[in-house]
Amino acid sequence: MRAAVIDIGSNSTKLVIGEKAGDDIKVLESLKNVVAIGQNTFYKGRISQEIFNEIIRVLERYKVLIKQYEVTETKVIATTAVREAENRDIFLDTVERKTGFKIEVLNVGDVVYFIDAFLSYKLKKKYPINEKNLLIAEIGAGSLDISILEKGYTLFNFGIPIGTLRLKQFKSMVEGSQKEVYEALEEYVENEVTNLKRSIPAIKLDDILFIDESYSAALPHILPNLKREEEFFPLQFRESRKLLARVMRSSPDELIRKNNVSPDIADTIDCYALVVNKLFKLIKKRSIFLLETSLSEALLANTIFGFDLAEKYNKTNQLVSVAKFICSLYGSDLKHAKQVASLAEQLFNQMKGVLGLRDNDLLYLLLAAYLHNIGMFINNRSHHKHTEYIINSLSFFRLSPQEIKCIACIARYHRKAHPQKTHYFYGGLPLNEQLLVQKLASILRVANALDSAHKQKVKKLEIQANPDGGLTLVVYSNDNFALEKISFKDRKQLFEEISGSQLNLLVKKQPA
Question: Per the CB 3.0–4.6 Å rule, which of 3, 147, 163, 350 could disulfide with 303?
Answer without folding.
Answer: 3
